[in-house]
């Protein structure tokens, strides 16, 4: 275009100047730490702040041959799948219930988000008071009505600790998913349901043929981001169990933290981070390739 | 670039960032020299007539301790207008993760509270200054207890000034033992029998921590000492954990856990004390913090708070875990060092030292001879005065105190054992994974050997 060809030098630079701050921010906050971790993964650095020596791929060999590292992946799978299933089911159920008019519905739509806005530390303490093996309300209630005769130790039990953590995390996060699903439901054309009614389709069939497919793009985004968020949850697990008992809730982020700051192997933890990031990148690639909704 | 490509690129970046964010410590390996650290921390005292600023970090977070420390420091500052010591409260939770970065970037303190194994870790940063002269001078005036200084004495220097000692004993509810007709146990057999007999209805014989924590490490170590197995690592970092006596100690602990509340494997410091004060548990093994809260929390008279030294196994030895908390000097500025020496002189004066210790009466024990002497300010605190007999037991127990990693030379890699709580993790092998004590101890030996490689 003639106009574009006459732009001054400053006009040509302006777009670059405008994006420069965000590029600098990304370089500083993403690529610099990423570079530091990558570098550390080739050093035998122990305690934070000390100088290690270059050891090539030894940290990677240690991590890849570590039974504890792969065991933590098992815990992470359990954690992610458990959260994914429970949160999705609960979010759909709640969103469908709230996707209708009514004064009470409006009230619940507003207050339903409370669990999500509570800080994680409060959530952890709150549920600890309920599940605590000595003074927990749940134990007190169960003993009072005679279902059990002695308090049960759910958080400290190797079999129960992970399901309990998944339950608490689901309670904390399902309102967020509910809001997203609800937003998706409100934009589905009502006429499609009316047409389905005329054709004699029941509610169940309407859900699977209209509702669910219409939410495909939202579910794709939630599936991708939600999985990554869920995988990287650290605070709730650290506060409630610190990965215990006996490693029963040591997911990958917990494992990396323990190796870095309890076992004092920063180099090894860095290598574990790189390997983990690579695995997540593969997951992202596969999810996008096979999970992305097809444009019709 | 298509929308799909942007999505892929964005998601890739997000995945990488999320996975890596947790590990980066945000520091490079380039060291900042101690002098740079000092300069950055705000020395204003190199010239005459200026106020020398000293920053002190301690990790004693309870408000009563913070208040008392501040009182002592304010009194010192008032008496020394040319020096200003400023205390900043930190958390032990940040000690291993954030302090090193702060120190390396020049934002660390001039004085930092420590415990023996933490000193071996921080010393690796190359900023800890020897305090031989200060300790020698204080020792001549006040007489340091040997057990308090030894864990900080290696590599030809003393690396921290001992501040107060802590020792474990067996606490018991006299009212509950009397009601059951039980005398305070002196041996392991008596302890097991008492715990068993006192476990009845909703009451437990004893409350023990069994989580992966320092609290569990410490109580376990008291059992190791009394089993006659205090040496688990020597000065050359050789692990000697897998022994018959240690297996015996773990068997005993696992046995006692049957008389401890069901959720003991989630307990750290506070829970056993809460159970003890509530009367739900009749015995507990801990340090001296039980004195100050007993009457208020239990609603029982002070005479119901029983204390005895750690019961001993057949063929074992008397003792329990004991360690001194200390203060490291991180500045190499000579003006600051002179001011710090003056501060220590003030702190250890018997008329001040007791007030400092009684920031937490009974938990913080004197590490100097004149600090514990009759008539010193230590004994004037109302809690100490009320529980004088109990405090005397604590002081006597200190004489047989031991600390793992410092019993057979100083193990420079003890941090690698205490950091991951391998003593407690060994117990978890029994309590959560169903291993026998022998299998668990064998597992512990392997873990510790790998840790110090």
Q: What is the end-to-end distance of chain A?
A: 35 Å
Stated plainly, the CATH topology of the largest domain in chain B is called D-Maltodextrin-Binding Protein, domain 2
Secondary structure tally, helices of chain A: 15
Low-confidence segments of chain A, given as residue ranges, are none
Number of domains of chain A: 1
Overall strand count of chain A: 0
Order of helices and strands of chain A: HHHHHHHHHHHHHHH
What radius of gyration of chain A results from the CA coordinates?
A: 25 Å
In short:
Chain A: Keywords: Cell membrane, Membrane, Transmembrane, Transmembrane helix, Transport. With 296 residues, chain A is an all-alpha fold. Chain A has helices at 2-5, 9-40, 58-64, 67-98, 103-111, 114-117, 120-131, 137-144, 161-186, 190-198, 203-214, 216-231, 235-240, 252-261, 266-291.
List keywords for this structure.
heterodimer; A: 296 residues; mainly alpha; MetI-like fold; 15 helices; 72% helix; globular; B: 453 residues; alpha/beta; D-Maltodextrin-Binding Protein, domain 2; 2 domains; 21 helices; 12% strand
What does this structure look like?
Chain A: The chain crosses the membrane at residues 13-34, 77-98, 110-130, 164-187, 207-231, 237-257, 269-288. Chain A: Pfam families: BPD_transp_1 (PF00528). Chain A: One of its GO terms (cellular component) is plasma membrane. The complex is a heterodimer of chains A (296) and B (453). In chain A, helix 4 (67-98) packs across helix 9 (161-186), helix 4 packs across helix 14 and helix 14 runs antiparallel to helix 15 (266-291). Chain A has a single domain (66-291), classed as MetI-like (MetI-like fold), CATH 1.10.3720. Helix content of chain A is 72%, strand content 0%. Chain A has 15 helices and no strands. Chain B is of the alpha/beta class and 453 residues long. Chain B is built from 21 helices and eleven strands. Chain B has helices at 3-21, 34-40, 63-79, 92-95, 99-104, 116-122, 132-142, 146-149, 174-180, 188-198, 214-226, 244-257, 270-278, 290-298, 334-348, 350-357, 382-386, 388-398, 415-418, 422-431, 437-451; strands at residues 52-58, 83-89, 111-114, 153-154, 157-158, 161-167, 169-173, 283-286, 305-308, 320-329, 401-402. In chain B, strands 1, 2, 3, 6, 10 and 11 form a six-stranded mixed sheet that branches. The termini of chain B are far apart. Chains A and B meet through helix 2, helix 12, helix 14 and helix 15 of A and helix 1, helix 5 and helix 20 of B.
């Amino acid at each position: 275009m003639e106009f574009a060809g006459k732009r001054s030098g400053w006009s040509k630079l302006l777009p670059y100047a405008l994006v420069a701050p965000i590029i600098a921010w990304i370089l500083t906050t993403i690529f610099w730490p990423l570079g530091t971790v990558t570098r550390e993964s080739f050093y035998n650095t122990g305690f934070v702040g000390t100088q290690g020596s270059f050891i090539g791929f030894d940290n990677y060999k240690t991590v890849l041959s570590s039974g504890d590292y792969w065991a933590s992946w098992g815990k992470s799978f359990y954690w992610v799948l458990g959260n994914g299933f429970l949160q999705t089911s609960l979010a759909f159920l709640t969103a469908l219930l709230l996707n209708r008019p009514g004064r009470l519905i409006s009230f619940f739509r507003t207050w339903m988000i409370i669990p999500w806005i509570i800080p994680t530390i409060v959530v952890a303490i709150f549920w600890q008071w309920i599940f605590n093996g000595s003074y927990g309300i749940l134990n007190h209630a169960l003993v009072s009505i005679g279902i059990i005769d002695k308090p049960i130790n759910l958080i400290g039990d190797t079999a129960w600790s992970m399901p309990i953590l998944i339950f608490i995390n689901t309670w904390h996060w399902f309102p967020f998913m509910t809001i997203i699903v609800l937003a998706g439901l409100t934009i589905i054309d009502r006429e499609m349901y009316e047409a389905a009614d005329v054709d004699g389709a029941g509610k169940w069939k309407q859900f699977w043929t209209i509702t669910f497919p219409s939410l495909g793009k939202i579910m794709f985004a939630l599936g991708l981001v939600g999985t990554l968020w869920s995988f990287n949850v650290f605070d709730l697990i650290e506060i409630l169990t610190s990965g215990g008992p006996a490693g029963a809730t040591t997911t990958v982020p917990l494992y990396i933290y323990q190796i870095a700051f309890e076992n004092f192997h920063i180099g090894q933890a860095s290598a574990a981070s790189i390997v983990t990031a690579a695995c997540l990148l593969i997951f992202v690639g596969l999810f996008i390739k096979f999970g992305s909704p097809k444009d019709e | 670039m298509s929308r799909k490509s942007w999505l892929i690129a964005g998601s890739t970046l997000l995945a990488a960032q999320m996975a890596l964010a947790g590990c980066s410590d945000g520091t490079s390996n380039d060291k900042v020299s101690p002098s740079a650290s000092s300069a950055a921390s705000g020395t204003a005292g190199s010239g005459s007539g200026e106020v020398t600023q000293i920053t002190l970090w301690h990790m004693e977070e309870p408000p009563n301790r913070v208040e008392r420390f501040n009182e002592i420091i304010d009194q010192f500052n008032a008496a020394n207008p040319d020096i200003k010591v400023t205390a900043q409260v930190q958390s032990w939770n940040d000690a291993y993760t954030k302090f090193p970065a702060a120190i390396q970037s020049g934002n660390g303190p001039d004085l930092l509270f420590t415990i023996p194994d933490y000193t071996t870790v921080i010393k690796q940063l190359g900023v800890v200054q020897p305090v031989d002269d200060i300790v020698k001078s204080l020792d001549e005036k006040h007489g340091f207890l040997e057990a308090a200084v030894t864990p900080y004495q290696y590599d030809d220097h003393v690396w921290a000034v001992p501040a107060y000692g802590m020792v474990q004993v067996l606490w018991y509810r006299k009212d509950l033992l009397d009601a059951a007709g039980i005398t305070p146990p002196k041996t392991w057999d008596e302890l097991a029998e008492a715990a068993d007999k006192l476990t009845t209805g909703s009451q437990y014989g004893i409350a023990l921590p069994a989580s992966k924590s320092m609290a569990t490490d410490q109580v376990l170590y008291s059992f190791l000492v009394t089993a006659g197995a205090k040496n688990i690592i020597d000065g050359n970092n050789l692990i000697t954990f897998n022994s018959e006596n240690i297996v015996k100690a773990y068997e005993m602990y696992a046995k006692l856990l049957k008389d401890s509340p069901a959720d003991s494997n989630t307990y750290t410091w506070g829970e056993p004390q809460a159970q003890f004060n509530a009367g739900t548990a009749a015995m507990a093994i801990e340090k001296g913090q039980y004195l100050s809260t007993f009457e208020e929390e239990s609603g029982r008279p002070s005479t119901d708070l029983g204390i005895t030294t750690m019961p001993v196994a057949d063929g074992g030895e008397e003792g329990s875990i004991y360690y001194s908390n200390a203060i490291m000097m991180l500045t190499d500025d000579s003006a600051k060092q002179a001011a710090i020496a003056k501060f220590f002189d003030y702190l250890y004066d018997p008329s001040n030292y007791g007030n400092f210790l009684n920031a937490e009466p009974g938990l913080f024990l004197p590490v100097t001879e004149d600090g514990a002497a009759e008539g010193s300010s230590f004994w004037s605190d109302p809690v100490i005065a009320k529980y004088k007999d109990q405090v005397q037991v604590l002081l006597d127990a200190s004489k047989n105190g031991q600390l793992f990693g410092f019993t057979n030379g100083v193990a420079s890699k003890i941090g690698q054992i205490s950091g991951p709580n391998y003593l407690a993790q060994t117990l978890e092998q029994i309590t959560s994974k169903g291993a026998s004590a022998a299998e668990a101890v064998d597992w512990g030996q392997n873990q510790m050997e790998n840790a110090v490689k």
